[in-house]
Amino acid sequence: MAEKISHEEFVKTAVEKLRTEGYKGIHSVYSGFNEAFKEYYPGEDPVATTTKLSKEGKITLLPVKGGVMIYLPGEAPAKLSRGGEALKKMGLK
Q1: Exposed site from 21, 29, 80, 87, fewest CB < 10 Å?
Q2: What is the pLDDT of residues 57-83, one digit of tens each?
């Protein structure tokens, strides 16, 4: 069997190939990423790996309902705090 690609390369390839047109990120569950990761790297945890890559600045993770959105560096949308969101809705920001 051929040599497996690195975790970083796997995640970056997944984001580039699995994202839906008009979106820059992928949902860890709904895109099939977690399942594909577990199949490609048997016995390894996709959550631990993506968390590590995020801490290293190689990807960006944003929590969402049912999982996380995975983005390449610099492609994640700016996220306002809850207070910032409230102020924006109130027209004060």
Answers
A1: 21
A2: 999 999 999 999 999 999 988 776 777
Q: Is the dihedral of CA 73, 75, 78, 79 positive or negative?
A: negative
Q: What is the CATH number that goes with domain 7-89?
A: 1.10.10
- Determine what percent of the chain falls in helix, strand and coil, rounding each to the nearest 5: 40, 15, 45
Q: Where are the domains of the chain?
A: 7-89
Q: How far is CA 38 from CA 34, 46, 58, in A?
A: 6, 7, 20
pTM over 0.85: no
Q: What are phi and psi of 68, to 5 degrees?
A: -135, 155
